[in-house]
Amino acid sequence: MSSALGNFPSSADYAALFPSFLVALVPLLILFADLFFKSNGPLRRAVAVGIALIGLVAAGAIEASQYPQDYAAFGGAFVQGGFSIVFSEVVIVATIATLLLSVGIGRDDQVAGTTSLLLWSASGAMLMAGASNLMIVFLGLELLSLALYCLCAMSTRQTARESALKYLILSSMASGFLLYGSALLFGATGSVAFSALAAAPTSPLLALGAGLFLVGLAFKLSLVPFHAWTPDVYEGAPLPVTAFMSVATKAGTLAVLARFAYAALPSDHAQAVLVPLWVLAALSMLVGNLAALAQTDMKRLLAYSGIAQVGYIVTALAGTSVLGLRYAILYLAGYMFMNLGAFAVVALMARDGDAVVGLGRFAGLAHRRPWLAAAMTFFLIGLAGLPPTIGFTGKILILAASVGAGYAWLAGVLILGTAISAYVYFKIVRAMFVRIDPRHVRDERSRNALPWVAVVVCAAATFILGLIPLTPSNVLPLVK
After folding, report:
1. What one-character DSSP code corresponds to residue 202?
2. Burial of 317 by CB count in 10 Å (0-12 exposed, 13-18 middle, 19+ buried)?
3. Could you tell me the sign of the dihedral formed by the alpha carbons of 425, 426, 427, 430, in that order?
4. Which residues contact 425 (CB under 8 A, 6 or more apart)?
């Protein structure tokens, strides 16, 4: 009896999961509060978003207070520590910025529901950040994805429905790869725990399962050639949803990928299994930047930019060095601020809630709204990898890590991809600073000033991290 009682979860187990629990429970409070509103109005919208922001800030503070601790909760199914906390904080910050972009998604009567879906999706990404068990990975992934399927359709445009359907079908296919790979890994080890994988002998079944598992993650990360869904889904989804997907989905999936590559695969087998992943990273850096050259819609351009950017992050993981992991996390944080800042500028330019902003709308922006043009220029030079931004510092550190790990060819591809990306971003900068007759461009004035908060914070973080590249030290992933 005592041994059975000893298997019950302790208060420490629940404490480790409390931040993600909190983010998942706050939506219930939002939906309850929304029942008291009989009519639509700004107050109804403000209450839903306000409760969500308070809950996210509280969850972030609790996560930060637990940073020095490493704890394997629920028998090792969820490992709380510096690694999971850093990724969870990235998800929380991305969710807060998403809410600021539009103060809720959809009509006034839809905001409570859409805000709840956004938080449930964020809780799934946070669950993935600490997952050390194949079942928890799948649970977090589905919680992240199912809410996004609905959010992608929360727009009156026909392309939003198409976006949601494409994401549903292709994401379900990715989940199928991941689930089948998990089944093979279970067959090879007799356990769903990552710690069992690390101790398992090398076998063809283990290699095949690991390969299919990585294919599923590559779909979620939009690595080439599993990227085809990304531009269409990003273009059709509402702008805040696109911004959230561009960061939170990557953060949760990268956490699983890093834990799997660094701690779950047998050390004598890891590099052989992961070599195809480094090839996908190289293809993503090239294809993402080359495809972005031809884009005329800002959301599609940022989608292809994100494909290239995730290639840079995966390059840092090549060789599975500790420094590479630290630099990957640093660059992920920098990408979050640069990308969300760019999306905040697009949100300020959107007319009457329209999420479609073509590159032509940027023509002459410096003469109509100079501060907005200056902010966009700063984010674009960061994404291009120029000083004094974290984009420059982060890429230098990734180059050092990849060369030090023996992957100089990946470093060369990164340099080539960065050179191509300069043409992508500077065609926007050139358009903004070309003087044109303002009568031919309708001036856009957003009714919502909150995206300016995101712009200022993201610009400051992009600059500060570029000068002081803070890389967390306690980020080595654990599986038990």
Report:
1. P
2. buried
3. positive
4. 380, 381, 383, 384
Instruction: Check pLDDT > 60 for residue 305.
Output: yes
Q: Per residue in 419-431, pLDDT tens?
A: 998 988 988 888 8
Looking at residue 444, its pLDDT comes to 55
Nearest to 377 by CA among 389, 393, 368: 389
Question: Is the Cα torsion angle 443, 446, 449, 454 positive or negative in sign?
Answer: negative
| Sequence-distant (≥ 6) Cβ neighbours of residue 131 within 8 angstroms | 77, 78, 137, 139, 140, 255, 256, 259
In the chain, what are the domain boundaries? 8-467
Using alpha carbons, select from 122, 101, 103 the residue that is nearest to residue 56: 122
Residue 337 binned pLDDT confidence (cut-offs 50, 70, 90): very high
Nearest to 349 by CA among 381, 367, 372, 375: 372
Q: What are 428's two structure tokens?
A: 């926007």
**Average pLDDT over the chain, rounded to whole?**
85
In whole angstroms, give the CA distance from residue 84 to residue 134.
16
Q: What is the DSSP letter of 262?
A: I
Distance in angstroms (rounded) separating the CA atoms of residues 70 and 120: 25
Tokens of 350: 């959107």
Query: What is the token pair recorded at 210?
Result: 């690991």
Specify the 3-state DSSP secondary structure of 192.
Answer: coil
Single-letter residue type at 201: P
Determine phi and psi for 358, rounding to 5 degrees: -80, 160
Residue pair 315/414 in contact (Cβ under 8 Å)? The answer is yes
User: How long, in residues, is the chain?
Assistant: 480
Q: What is the pLDDT of residue 378?
A: 93
For residues 250, 145, 107 and 246, what is the CA-based torsion angle, rounded to 10 degrees? 10
Phi, psi dihedrals of residue 271, rounded to the nearest 5°: -65, -40
Dig out the tokens for 142 from the structure: 């589905």
Biggest alpha carbon–alpha carbon distance for the chain: 82
